[in-house]
Amino acid sequence: MSTGLLLLTAVVVVVAAFVQGSTGLGFALIVAPVVGLIEPRLLPVLLLVLMIPLNGYVAWRERHAMDTGGASWITAGRVAGTAGGLWVLFAVPASGLNLLIGGSTVLAALASLLAPSFVPGRRSLIAAGAVTGVTETATGIGGPPLALVYQHRPAPELRSTIAICFLVGEVISLGLLAATGQVDGEQLRTALMLVPALGLGALLSRAVHHRVDGPVMRTLVLGFALVSGVVVLVQG
After folding, report:
1. Which of 19, 42, 112, 223 has its CB 3.0 to 4.6 Å from that of 46, i.e. a possible disulfide?
2. Statement: residue 108 has pLDDT above 80
3. Are 230 and 102 in contact (CB under 8 A)?
């Protein structure tokens, strides 16, 4: 990657880290299309490496609001889903995977607009974790299922719980990708060079994250899910 393209990517990472640090969502949605155009073979490893420290920071910052029980059920589903994501990465053409993920995400978001408020139960949490394991391991994008299942919860709970689920899952996904030879030095070097940009965006989010809650948060969540679904559909 040239210096100019690296600087462009760094700017995108600052914006994406600020958005995810403020809302708990959006990093992969913002960064993945740009990196996909510039250097697609950096995905999904670049996203996974960068999101580990970002989600670690968000989880620690709002640890008082974390739904540890829900995170445990999501992680249980995520472990099973990660293996499925690795299989999908080898077996399914990228276009077919994108169509499936994008279509199901858009449908889920539209259904959520009509659904009454709910508290996520064990089955929905496990299912969200399994789907996230598949999608994030295969594409680097795993936010929509978790965002939808926590859309009616307070913003600090959503941010911290999703962050810890992402953190655990990203370590598992990255480990499996490394074990199967999907991680190389260039991906890791590029991620390391982007860490300062990541840190800047995360620190900037600290000034505004406490102002995002209630109906505003739910609107952002559903908007994020719809846009991400459409982006993935277009890529497919």
Report:
1. 42
2. no
3. yes
